[in-house]
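Appendix B, example 12.
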Amino acid sequence: MGKDGTSISDEEWERFLRESEAGTHDAPEEPSARARMVTRRLRDEPAPPEGWRTHRPARRRRGNGWYGVGLLVAVGLFVVALNPGWVTGRLGGGGGGSRPLAAESERPDQPPPSEVAVQLPTVEQPFRGSPAAEWGDGTAGVHLPVARATGWMSKQQVARTIERTRDFLAASSLDPGVLRGERPGKAIALINPHQQDVQNYLATAFRAPSRQNDPLLLFSRFAKEHVRLVGDVIKARGRVTYREGERGAVEVTTDVTYVYPVVRAAAGSSEVARTVVRREVVMSWDDPQKVTVEPGTFSLISYKVDTANGGCDTFTGYFTPAFTAERAVSGPGDGPEVDPYDRSTSMDVRMRDAAEAGCGTATRS
C-alpha cells in the first residue's frame, strides 16, 4: 500500500524493483531468522507430532521495528500399508475418457464415494478404480481464484501472483525432471532467497535428507533407479485461495492432492502402484517496501504433507512406493485407516490426527 492507503501502481512497483536491484539506500534490509518452539497458531492446539518444526523468521521492515511471520513445517506420519482390496472406486476408467469433475472451489463435505468392486489399475489405465480418474490433469485440476486488489497489490498484480503460484505447483509437484529425482531449480527460484531458515532447509534437504530436512515436504520426487512414472499424466485436485496477510502482504494458500502412478524401474514391469500426496503450502507475497524479497518470489509461512504409499518413516529424499510383494511383507500399519482421497478434512485436522497415529492403513490408492 502507498502512504496514502492506495494500492501501488504497476509503474511504481517496477520502479521500486529497479531501484532495489540497483542498491538504493531506501531498499529494505535483508531479513534474519530465529527459531521458535511455539507459534500463536498452535498455542491452543494439542502438542504436534514428532517431525513438526515451527519457525518464526524475523524480517526487518523499513525504518524501525520488526515483525515475524510464523513458518510452520508439518510432516504427516506417512499412511502406507495397503489392503489387498484397496482399489475400490466409482469408476473403471483410466483417466483418459472420463469427463473431469468441476474444479474444487471450496472444501467438500464428504470423501469421494467408493464401490465394492475391485478394479485394478493397468499401464494403459493407471487411474482405474481411483477417484482421480475424474480429476483434472496437472494444474488443470487446481481451482484458481478470481483476482481482486488485495493488500499492497492491485488486481493485475494479484493475477500475476496467482499465475506464479500455479507455476510453483507445477515446478514442485508436476515437473517431469523433478519427479525423476532432479533438483527442483525452477521451484526453488520462486522462493525468497533472503528467508534464511528456508534456504538452510533447502541446502540440507537435498544433501542429507532427514525427518527435519525432508525435500518431500515441498517437492515430489521418485528415485528413477527404483520406479518410473506411468505415462505423462499426473492427476490433481485442489484449490488456491488468498487473503491479506501481515503488513499488507498477499497470503496465498494452496491445498492440492496429487496422484502419481508408477511401476518398477525394471524393463517390462507392469504392476501399477499409486502414490497419493496431499500438500498444503502457505506463502506470503510480501510488500518489497517492508520486507526484503527478490522480484517475483514469495516467503514461506508453512508447508505440510500427508502421503499414502510413499514410504513410512523413510527419509531418503524420494517417495518409496510399495508393490504387492512389499505390502505382503510389511502388513498393515499400526495407525488408523485413512482415505487419502478424503479432502473434506482440513490439513490441520489431518496433522493433528496423525500425532497419535503411526503408519496408518490407506483404504484405497
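The helical segments are 10-22, 155-173, 176-179, 185-188, 196-207, 324-330, 347-354. The first helix runs from residue 10 to 22.
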